[in-house]
Amino acid sequence: MDKRNFVYNYVMKKSDFDNLQNDVEMGLNRLSETIAGKGILSGLEVTLSGTTAEISSGIAFDGNGKRIELASSTTVDVSSIIRPAAGMIKWITLVLKHNYREQGSVIDGNNKTWPARILDSYGTEILEGTQAAEASATKPSVSSDKVLLIDIKVDSSTPWASLSTGTDRRPNSLANILNLVYPIGYTYAQYPGCSTPGEMLWPGTWTAQFETEGVFFRTPGGEASVFGSGIQEDAMQRITGRTGKSVQHQGNGHQGRSGVFSSFTEFWTGNRSGGSTAGSYHFDSSGSTSPNPAKTDDKETRPRNRTFRIWKRTA
Question: What pLDDT does residue 251 have?
Answer without folding.
Answer: 47
